[in-house]
């Protein structure tokens, strides 16, 4: 018999597959469109308008993968959540600590419920359900942005709790620069999302080096010195395939997650 948690994960996986197929179809259409544009530009070049052609096709045909923000592609849209957000049960005036006991060292994360009450509440709820126990940190980026991403029970970026939590504490990031980005300092822990407002789930990222990102990722905690050192050591080994964005070469498993008050 399939449990409710298994069913939620199955539904989340099915939704991710539909999203992946739509993205792939969009990429195919974009490639066809670019091919037509390239052919037209070739005619312009042949006619002697080389400068125009170069200016029109300069750069990649897509964003640099290393600069892609921390995504949680599984998270349902707020109107599509398959289960309700847990009822607020934390002391909104208290400090909390989330401890991630990993096979690469312990990471303690200080959280302030006054600034991110619903985020802290969600982590306390999920940790109490052992949601994170035995899950991998599935993504490491070493160029453009510098984060280790965790919190996905499937281990491939497609898993979540079946509900969304709202963005919180974004004002603390300050006014973005001319590039539209804010500084996430080393040691910051923030929520991944789908790129849409209020679309956080269970995935989060650990910033091990100062990183600039759009100011749309809830900063909810700060790693202790030992935790930051452990994440930096993982980052030093790079990714499994040697690229700047992928699964860490040094596998990381959250063996147990706990949230305590004070």
TrEMBL record:
<dbReference type="InterPro" id="IPR002130">
    <property type="entry name" value="Cyclophilin-type_PPIase_dom"/>
</dbReference>
<feature type="region of interest" description="Disordered">
    <location>
        <begin position="237"/>
        <end position="262"/>
    </location>
</feature>
<feature type="region of interest" description="Disordered">
    <location>
        <begin position="1"/>
        <end position="32"/>
    </location>
</feature>
<feature type="compositionally biased region" description="Low complexity">
    <location>
        <begin position="69"/>
        <end position="86"/>
    </location>
</feature>
<feature type="region of interest" description="Disordered">
    <location>
        <begin position="60"/>
        <end position="89"/>
    </location>
</feature>
<dbReference type="GO" id="GO:0003755">
    <property type="term" value="F:peptidyl-prolyl cis-trans isomerase activity"/>
</dbReference>
<dbReference type="InterPro" id="IPR029000">
    <property type="entry name" value="Cyclophilin-like_dom_sf"/>
</dbReference>
<keyword id="KW-0413">Isomerase</keyword>
<protein>
    <submittedName>
        <fullName>Peptidylprolyl isomerase</fullName>
    </submittedName>
</protein>
<feature type="domain" description="PPIase cyclophilin-type">
    <location>
        <begin position="105"/>
        <end position="259"/>
    </location>
</feature>
<dbReference type="InterPro" id="IPR044666">
    <property type="entry name" value="Cyclophilin_A-like"/>
</dbReference>
<dbReference type="Pfam" id="PF00160">
    <property type="entry name" value="Pro_isomerase"/>
</dbReference>
<feature type="compositionally biased region" description="Basic and acidic residues">
    <location>
        <begin position="1"/>
        <end position="27"/>
    </location>
</feature>
<comment type="function">
    <text>PPIases accelerate the folding of proteins. It catalyzes the cis-trans isomerization of proline imidic peptide bonds in oligopeptides.</text>
</comment>
């Amino acid at each position: 018999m399939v449990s409710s948690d298994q069913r939620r994960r199955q539904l989340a996986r099915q939704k991710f597959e539909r999203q992946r197929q739509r993205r792939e179809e969009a990429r195919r259409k974009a490639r066809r469109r670019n091919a037509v544009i390239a052919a037209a530009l070739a005619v312009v070049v042949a006619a002697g308008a080389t400068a125009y052609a170069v200016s029109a096709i300069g750069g990649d045909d897509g964003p640099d993968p290393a600069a892609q923000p921390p995504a949680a592609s599984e998270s349902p849209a707020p109107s599509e959540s398959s289960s309700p957000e847990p009822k607020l049960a934390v002391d909104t005036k208290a400090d909390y600590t989330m401890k991630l006991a990993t096979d690469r060292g312990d990471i303690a994360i200080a959280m302030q419920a006054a600034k991110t009450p619903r985020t802290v509440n969600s982590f306390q709820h999920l940790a109490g359900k052992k949601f994170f126990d035995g899950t991998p940190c599935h993504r490491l980026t070493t160029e453009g942005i510098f984060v280790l991403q965790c919190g996905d029970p499937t281990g491939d970026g497609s898993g979540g709790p079946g509900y969304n939590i709202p963005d919180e504490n974004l004002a603390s990031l300050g006014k973005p620069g001319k590039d539209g980005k804010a500084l996430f300092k080393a040691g910051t822990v923030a929520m991944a999302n789908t790129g849409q407002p209020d679309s956080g789930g269970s995935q989060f990222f650990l910033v091990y080096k100062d990183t600039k990102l759009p100011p749309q990722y809830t900063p909810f905690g700060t790693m202790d010195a030992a935790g930051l050192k452990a994440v930096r050591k993982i980052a030093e080994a790079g990714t499994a395939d040697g690229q700047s964005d992928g699964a860490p070469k040094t596998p990381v498993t959250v063996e147990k997650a706990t949230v305590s008050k004070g």
